[in-house]
Design goal:
By secondary structure, the chain is an alpha+beta fold. The chain has three domains: 1-134, no CATH class; 143-261, SH3 type barrels; 267-412, Alpha-Beta Plaits, CATH 3.30.70.100. Helix content is 59%, strand content 11%. A five-stranded antiparallel beta sheet has the order 4-3-2-1-5. Strands 6-8-7 form a three-stranded antiparallel beta sheet. Strand 1 (213-216) and strand 2 form a beta hairpin. The longest helix is centred in the N-terminal third of the chain and has 41 residues, at 20-60.
Length: 427
Amino acid sequence: MFKNLIQFFYELFVSLHFTEYQSVLFSESATFISLLVFAVITYYLSWFIIKRTVIIFIQRSDNHFDDILLKNRVISRFSYFVPSFIISKFAPSSLPSFPDAFATVQKTIEIYVIFVAMLVISAIISSLYDFYNTLDVSKNKPVKGLAQILKLVVFIVGGLMILATLMNQNLANLVIGLGTLSAVLMLVFKDPILGFVGGIQLSLNDMVRIGDWISMPKYNADGDVLEITLTTVKVQNFDKTITTIPTYALVSDSFTNWRGMSESGGRRVKRNISIDMETVRFCSQEMIEKFKQFHLIEAYIHQKEMEIADFNQLHQIDASTMVNGRRQTNLGVFRAYLKAYLQSHPLVHNEMPVLVRQLQSSDKGIPMEVYFFSSRQAWTEYEDLQSDVFDHVLAVIPLFGLRVFQQPSGGSIEKATLLMKDYKEIQ
């Protein structure tokens, strides 16, 4: 067929009074161009057949993986091989008088095939990654960094193969020759290499998952992990800004992962309030009777009074003097009340520790620390609970004869000044 086509073009150009060489050159060039047109037509025809058969079958199939292959254009990229096959098959027949030109065409086809193979393999890797993300294990073991490094390897190897084809060199010899450039390559690909190593360590050690809440003050990151890639970890902060952190930094630097808190079902509250030491005193009988009216500690007061009475009687202690024997203090009763209040609160996680304790007193009073876990982990609900608890704490402190310690403010200084002025006038 191609001989007849060449002969047809040759006679045409001879009839147009071209020279012998020109007629041969133009006739075989026209034949090769006809081959290219035929290859393009064949490609579109094959793609039309694929769309009418294979793609329709995939769309009707219940299998999810073939839909992923279609989305990542794996099938369409396979069809790119059709024109290269046709040109490679028939190019010798279209250029019989120009072997050097055929060699160039053949080399170009090889480069084209390598490039298309790179695209196909890359699409397959993307498809496998997308399919992996449909599995439950992907939430705990993100592999986007691994997928990216595989694509990088594919394109590096493909690029070396194209370079070897252009230079008419064996790939192994070319790689050995590039060994002297390894230091340069290490410098150029430093971040991807470190990111790849960091991604493997993060995955194997289960240090970070997509959706984890992490805090990394060094990078001003405090929010949820959106994406883990070859070189960066993307974090959406609570103010909706996005922070990108180098993947390897999560291995080399310290950060806080709040996943344990999220999985535990509780979120810790640890705050303290300072009590004025001058307001701490033994409880009088009148105070005891008043405290018995507080439902949360009514049973505690009765039990404690019986325990103290038994102790004092056993040791024959004269209880008419306050300092003798054991007695309750308003601060101790207040501490018991706070613990009972927290244990009865519907939003406090009772299966986790609930603690009310005194810290080391100082010139700023007695710090009373409240330690418990909120059953609500969402930020707004968590903060609302803290505020509600300490609103109540501040409101009930005076009922126990106690006073919150705070530094003198402008109002208190002004009040003291007025009192001193009144005192002097009386004098």
